[in-house]
Design a protein that fits this description.
A: 348 residues; B: 243 residues; alpha+beta; 5 helices
Chain lengths: 348, 243
């Protein structure tokens, strides 16, 4: 048994996995990783099941040290500078920390959350089949709260399996897709048009419970109180001040504000990764299109293992990778995601 | 009651959930229809449905769009929603002790002044109620009860409190409720119960089910303190008086 000791970590970093659905009727929200594709990709890299518990690292940097043995890790999601004992590590690749070596992560770029998967997962006591942290409900293991400096995660010793990289689709910058409802009839047609015609930003006061949006005033037709009903990940509720809040993984299971629309499930992770302050737009799609995208997303998750590729050495040859991936900038969206290129660009 | 009601509205809640809306208001008949549909969906599982969440006036049905699409599932739900609604969907009944007033119910005096009756009369009316768990929501174990006497209906506080104690029993609008965890609330705090509607390391972790019946019984502060210690050790405290 090895452990991964947290030397330093920013706020909004916690152990997350696929979450704990099934108890929303008792007021318990599933929680789980904000970006399920990145969660699954990081886990696939180290041979774990796709929704195994990982460290969800928030926008700030972090340092981890392997103790008691080697530890094999992989990171996916928001790009950031990463090195192990001075060796640069690219995103979307696995790497191994020898006993006593430190993994240093910089600030997130082009996203908010990175997913640090550990081969064999994290030791903990699951509740409702999950280790996901939900601090409000006192749930999460090994710590029922965000991670702090000094915490130690018990993990399996590295197996010595060869390191790999994974080829992910390029991150899209297209508008975030929504379907109207369930209470879009609480808003005038002009208001709905304003909602999709406008530029929005995510407020820095956002968290895993909800992302507060800044943009035009969204006016209600009949006031801002409805009798509470159920919520889902991506519910776009509009409180009295007309500034929508998108409900995220740690939402309440019910709410009393009208919900004008819902972010489609295939775009939820991409929306969750949108950095605070970066302008973006919404676009409305049909239910048929949203469900077709949900099926495509499920297929992408299912086929992640087919996207694994061998890499030659743990000690990355940066020049060779640079030549292979970004020469002439003729980068295929599939062959080399933008995250690779960014990660290989070196420290800021 | 039979299926002479209009069909519920099927509202999309993203691509992976349907809100089955029976009413826009807090409505006892609508809530019974919600709970009846919830029970019917549990008795005859529908392909692709992952979980259901009953509320006052709607049933939220979560599903996997890889297994079933909106139109097909919607049709199946409408068929189930046309079944006759039983008079009572659940006969479980619990007696929940409450320490009213004082430090445990800091709004009791103000509520009494607002309604121009004595605090004792507020307690008497609250205790006389026969309640049903209409929904559990927002945070684990937060139980919203229907059946509050109209004589205790009053608007929520102008300024919601950011932190109210675990176990608070309160009234707001036409509702009363039992919250389990400490948290924000705009309701008027009448008292506290030692009963944990949600408690990890206890079996069952969740005490109450939507549809359960509740009566309250007053206890003094000393009894509350004793019960609170016992509850912390895992005792139910709530007394089940029918099953």
């Amino acid at each position: 048994m090895s452990s991964l000791v947290i030397d330093s970590i920013g706020p909004a970093s916690s152990v997350q996995d696929g979450g704990r659905p099934g108890s929303q009727r008792y007021g318990l929200v599933p929680s789980g990783a904000m970006d399920r594709l990145a969660l699954a990709a990081a886990n696939t890299l180290v041979g774990n099941e796709p929704f195994t518990a990982v460290v969800e690292v928030g926008p700030f940097g972090a340092k981890f040290t392997a103790r008691g043995g080697t530890v094999r890790v992989a990171m996916a999601g928001a790009s950031r500078n990463a090195d192990i004992a001075g060796r640069t590590v690219a995103s979307d690749m696995s790497a191994t920390l020898a006993e006593g070596e430190t993994l240093t992560l910089g600030f997130a770029r082009g996203g908010s959350f990175s997913y640090l998967a550990i081969e064999g997962g994290i030791e903990g006591e699951p509740k409702f089949g999950s280790l996901a942290v939900n601090a409000r409900a006192g749930l999460g293991s090994p710590y029922p709260r965000p991670l702090q400096s000094g915490d130690a995660l018990q993990v399996k010793a590295a197996s010595g399996a060869p390191e790999r990289r994974i080829e992910l689709p390029a991150a899209s910058e297209a508008p975030i897709r929504i379907v109207w409802g369930p209470q879009d009839d609480e808003f005038a047609g002009d208001t709905k048009k304003l909602f999709v015609d406008s530029e929005w930003k995510i407020s820095p006061t956002s968290d895993r419970m909800g992302y507060r949006l800044e943009g035009p005033m969204i006016k209600h037709l009949h006031g801002h109180n409805i009798v509470s009903d159920g919520t889902v990940d991506g519910s776009l509720q509009v409180p009295g001040n007309g500034q929508p809040i998108v409900l995220m993984r740690d939402r309440g299971t019910s709410g009393g504000y009208p919900k004008i629309a819902t972010v489609i499930s295939a775009d939820f992770g991409r929306f969750a990764q949108t950095p605070a302050g970066q302008p973006f737009r919404f676009t409305a799609v049909s239910m048929a299109e949203a469900q077709a995208e949900a099926r495509k997303f499920a297929e992408l998750l299912r086929t992640l293992p087919e996207r694994l590729r061998a890499i030659e050495s743990v000690d990355l040859n940066i020049d060779a990778l640079h030549d292979a991936n970004v020469a002439g900038h003729a980068v295929s969206a599939v062959d080399a995601g933008t995250w690779h290129a960014e990660a290989l660009a070196g420290p800021d | 009651m039979t299926s002479t009601f209009p069909p519920p509205r099927l509202l999309p809640s993203g691509d992976s959930a349907i809100t089955v809306e029976f009413s826009r208001n807090i409505d006892d008949v609508a809530n019974r229809r919600v709970l009846a549909l919830d029970r019917a969906m549990a008795a005859e599982p529908v392909t692709g449905v992952t979980e259901t969440v009953p509320t006052y006036r709607s049933l939220l049905v979560h599903y996997d769009p890889v297994q079933v699409d909106f139109d097909r599932l919607g049709g199946q739900i409408l068929t189930l929603a046309q079944r006759p609604v039983p008079a009572a969907t659940n006969t479980r009944r619990w007696r929940i002790p409450v320490c009213y007033g004082g430090e445990h119910g800091i709004d009791l005096e103000d509520v009494a002044k607002t309604l121009n009756i004595t605090p004792e009369e507020i307690v008497a009316r609250h205790v006389a109620g026969d309640y049903r768990v209409a929904m559990i929501g927002f945070t684990p174990g937060w139980s919203y009860l229907s059946g509050l006497t109209e004589t205790l209906h009053m608007p929520r506080r102008q300024n919601p409190r950011l932190l109210t104690p675990a176990g608070t029993v309160s009234i707001g609008g036409v509702q009363t409720g039992v919250q389990c965890l400490a948290g924000p609330s705009g309701w008027h705090l009448l008292g506290r119960t030692a009963v944990r509607t949600y408690q990890l390391h206890r079996d069952p972790i969740f005490l109450l089910e939507p549809g359960d019946n509740i009566t309250f019984t007053p206890v003094d502060a000393k009894t509350f303190a004793d019960q609170d210690r016992a509850a912390e050790a895992g005792e139910f405290i709530a007394e089940q008086i029918a099953s």
